[in-house]
Amino acid sequence: MTKAGQGSSQSLSPRETRARRARRARALDAALFAACLAALAWIVLRGAQAMGYNWQWFRVPRYLWRIVDGEVILGALIKGLIVTLQISALAMLCAAAFGLVTALLRLSRSPVGRALAYGYIEIARNTPLLLQVLVFYFIIAYILGISRFWAGVLSLAFYEGAFAAEIIRGGVLAVRKGQWEAARSLGLGPFDTYRDVILPQALPLMLPPMAGVLVNLVKHSSIVSAIAIFDLTTEGRTIVADTFMAFEIWLTVAGIYLVITLSLSLAVAGLERRYGFARGH
Amino acid sequence: MTDTPMIAVRSVNKWFGAFHVLKDVDLVVQRGQKVVVCGPSGSGKSTLIRCINRLEEHDEGEIIVDGIRLDESLEHIAAIRREVGMVFQQFNLFPHLTVLENCVLAQVRARKTPRADAEARAMQYLARVRIPEQASKYPGQLSGGQQQRVAIARSLCMEPKVMLFDEPTSALDPEMIKEVLDVMTDLAQSGMTMICVTHEMGFARKVADLMVFMDHGRVVESSPPAEFFAAPRSDRTRQFLDQILSH
User: What are chain B's domains?
Assistant: First the structure.
């Protein structure tokens, strides 16, 4: 056996050659990524320079938070972030509920239920989200007398719920037919069968695409700025209007969204790994 | 009540689209009787027993289980499923639950049995199928033969009056078939009413009170095993037996 790192690659075992090739591919990937980032930064800086842009990064932190006499005072951006997180979290819960009910209706034996679910999914997926937000705010919120915050939450949930429904339906259909038959032959009703047999098996299959919905939801929540909810995007726009620091503020806002969505993706990936192990299948 | 048959299937017809799977099928199973149904694949034998607990719907004719008519009524269907247990070719254990949980779930949910009683009964039946020591494992950690025995225990936990077996050993490696058949033989000797779709003719000879041979959706022959194996009446039966007994 030749030691890795010595001699030509021909004298390495196939396994070592593969490992070395994988390492090289990873290094190349990282280098490419760094090069792209550097190029992007260079373009931005050149553009800013050409415009005679006056960078004022030192003015940004006060919009995040300030510490006065040992007390933390939240800035507008963090306050906006909290609103964004509240809207996203509530909308996710509602979207999951809409999605579950819609998926079960689409899978049900009732033709009316199936038609309703189908109609909802097609309308929600095939009309612009901005339009849905406006309809919820100007029409539905007006009729039901709900606040603009809830109009924002429900419109987002309405939109993402349709995608969640299709993901849940896909997960349920992926569970083998024999599981239904076993449950029925044991006398379990439809409710118990879904809760104890089908959904627990469908959940791990639904997690990866659901992470996508969750990330979309956080990103799409910026659209509620159209109905003057003071979320992260609205706060960013107000600050830019006041200070003309377009580059600094928008880059900061983008950075905050990225931190949230990336941590969500990582959290779901972790959950997925855990679920995958627990299943003795 | 006790002299009515356990299961009465009369002139049952069923179609899958244009395909006529069951043609005027009659079958009467007395209490405590063991019936073995055999026949080539596609002959409708699985469909027949799947109609008995309504996993499939029959289109014509009547099926009466323990005096309850199988029809659209959800109550009747639920009542019949309470009396009829089923074991599948692919086991169909719940992979996300332990062996014990597999046996406990339906008792607690469908029967409202207190958890402690359900667990005690589960352990009792797991002991009866000779795998009490596997109770805390997941189905995926067991061999095929062990999984099928758990499936039998899971069914027995519901204390059914009839057990349906749908090719219970067809998905098993040869060395595991015997352990499952042994459990089924025990069960037969305990007096359970059973309908088994199987090609295990050794088992059939040992436990069957009635042999049923199906072909192309029809019951071609139905007779006691001694007669069935020694002097089959129809050529089709003889041909089939020659093929499966010759190796």
Answer: 7-245 (3.40.50.300)
